[in-house]
Amino acid sequence: MKPETWLPHVTVAAIVERDGRFLLVEEHTSAGLRLNQPAGHLEAGETLLEAVVRETLEETAHPFVPEALVGMYMTHFERPAREGTTYLRFTYCGAGGEADPARALDADIVRTVWMSADEVRACPERHRTPLVMQCIDDYLAGRRFPLDFVHTHSVGPKR
Q1: Do 135 and 15 form a contact (C-beta atoms < 8 A)?
Q2: CA 104 to chain centre
Q3: What is d(CA 17, CA 32) in angstroms, rounded to the nearest whole number?
Q4: Is 106 helix (H, G, I), strand (E, B) or coil?
Q5: How far apart are CA 110 and CA 100, in angstroms?
Q6: Which residue of 25, 108, 141, 153 shows the fewest CB atoms closer than 10 Å?
Q7: pLDDT digits (tens, 9 = 90+) for 132-155
Q8: Is the pTM of this model over 0.70?
Q9: Which H, E and C letters describe 11-67, residue by residue?
């Protein structure tokens, strides 16, 4: 019997700040409605930058231009009745354009919301993960790495 291969899930997230407020999504999860940054999984053939631009547009209808990497985060979630999942999250900050009102949001997204850091901090029970606040705090602390901090050697064709 071949041993099972462990693979972490690679995700991206966007920090979009405008006038002291952060763009978040309210989304359906297995734990109910939760708040998160626009975020999602890296797809085959994508770079991390392409993924964060795509995910932000799909979840918020706002175009996104990454300006810096805020941080890389690893977290593990245990799941009842099945194996836990480890996530590697790459969070970028940048400029968000105006939303396209004709663009539909991803199916699990209920709405987008703009919240101050204090408003986000006041409702941790509504966060999808503890990384929601951690990423905002790191952004507010000025953590920034150049976009070329993560080098993409070669990306194969999209599947």
Answers
A1: yes
A2: 18
A3: 25
A4: coil
A5: 16
A6: 153
A7: 999 999 999 999 999 999 988 875
A8: yes
A9: EEEEEEEECCEEEEEEEEECCEEEEECCEEECCCCCCHHHHHHHHHHHHHCCCEEEE
Six token digits for residue 118: 């204090």
Task: Count other C-beta atoms under 10 Å from residue 55's C-beta.
Answer: 25
Q: Which helix (H) or strand (E) holds 112?
A: strand 109-116
Tokens found for residue 126: 């509504």
Residue 39 near residue 134, CB atoms below 8 Å: no
Task: Decide if 135 contacts 37 (C-beta within 8 A).
Answer: yes
* Domains of the chain with CATH codes: 15-44+55-146 (3.90.79.10)
Residue whose tokens read 């359906």: 28
